[in-house]
Amino acid sequence: MTDPEELPGAAGAPVPRILGNTGALAATDPEATGALWRLAEPGRQLDANLIRVPPRGSIDAHAEPDLDVLLLVVSGDGMLGSTAGPHPVEPGSLVWLPHGSVRSVTAGPDGLSYVTVHRRRPGMQIRSGPRARQP
């Protein structure tokens, strides 16, 4: 182990943290679906989610126009649909979803849990513009 005093960096700089265990998070409630976990740390530059699709459930074909997404399967199995055809995925499958690509996800008989990671979207901004006239 490295002594923390030997590591470079400014005092007060952010430090790495273990946020959880994807296997344990995916196994918490077998009936739960959707986003089971979200990265919510302040000041982050990434977004990440742990998603569970129920047995034989699916996420319809869609495209993400702006962001590349990295997908890591943590439990279950299924099919990743794309314009190149279906691709089987299983625990350990690491998939790059380039921005603009069309994809769908279909879970196998035991469901499918995966982590997605992508650049954080900027927050919505309210812009000033011409004022609407009041009658």
Q: Helix segment count? A: 1
Query: Topology as H/E string?
Result: HEEEEEEE
- What coarse outline follows from CA principal-axis ratios? globular
Q: What fold name stands as the CATH topology?
A: Jelly Rolls
Organism: Streptomyces indiaensis
Protein name: AraC-type arabinose-binding/dimerisation domain-containing protein
Describe the protein in words:
By secondary structure, this protein is mainly beta. It has a single domain (18-115), classed as Jelly Rolls, CATH 2.60.120. Helix content is 4%, strand content 43%. The protein contains one helix and seven strands, in the order αβββββββ. It has one helix at residues 22-26, and strands spanning 34-38, 46-53, 58-63, 69-82, 87-89, 94-97, 102-119. Strands 1, 2, 3, 4, 5, 6 and 7 form a seven-stranded antiparallel β-sheet that branches. The protein is globular, with a radius of gyration of 19 Å. The relative contact order is 0.22. The model has no long low-confidence stretch (mean pLDDT 85).
Topology, element by element:
Layout: H1 22-26, E1 34-38, E2 46-53, E3 58-63, E4 69-82, E5 87-89, E6 94-97, E7 102-119
Antiparallel strand pairs: 1-2, 2-7, 3-7, 4-5, 4-6, 4-7
